[in-house]
Amino acid sequence: MVRNSREAFKTYGNVFDNFTNNNIRKFSSQGYFEELKSTLSPGKEANVFTAEKKDGSEVVVKIYRLENCNFNKMLEYISQDPRYAYLKGSKRRIIFAWTQREYRNLMKAREVIRVPNVYNFKNNIIIMECIKDGDHVSLQLKDVELENPQEVFDEIVQMMKRLFKIGLIHGDLSDFNILMQNGRPVFIDFSQGSSIEAYNAKDLLMRDIKNICNFFSRKGLDIDEKVIFKEITGKVFK
User: Which residues are catalytic?
Assistant: First the structure.
């Protein structure tokens, strides 16, 4: 079963408060997982763990920290998203909305591209599919030796284009936030995903494009960022 005391959670980075512990126990009692297993990514705002289910399979549990997250960054991003223009209130309420926003982004994105399936969320916790190659968690793009960089690049651009068509921009796309499963890209970490109606949408998209183009330029591809922008949006960059 999931560990029951705050002391026991210190092996995972001492990031949990009693409120979060209680929600973890609730998810465990509902059968989503038995116990947290190992750390995948200790991020600035959240910690990501694998968790083992009763049948031995794994899920990913992403937990946004309530005590020491970068609240100002969250508020800056979410206040620019017209879907959350109404949002005001306490730090905790902003974090809960941020978690809901990532859940909503993943649910929308999965209609058109490969992303982890999302099983549930509550307050500051999201439970989602563990992307794997066989028995191992899939590697980030940055850690994979690509046989055909052009093919992978073209597929990533098409995924960005499909997201744009449904009104969504990843907002933090890079070789860190793309997993390679069976040689094909899977987008992860949609916490900064924004509507194309956000006033900073163009800046977010261009940052995504620059990150991806820079990575593949180092792989030997000759890429024009403005051409990619037009391919994704159908518009000339100005």
Answer: 172, 189
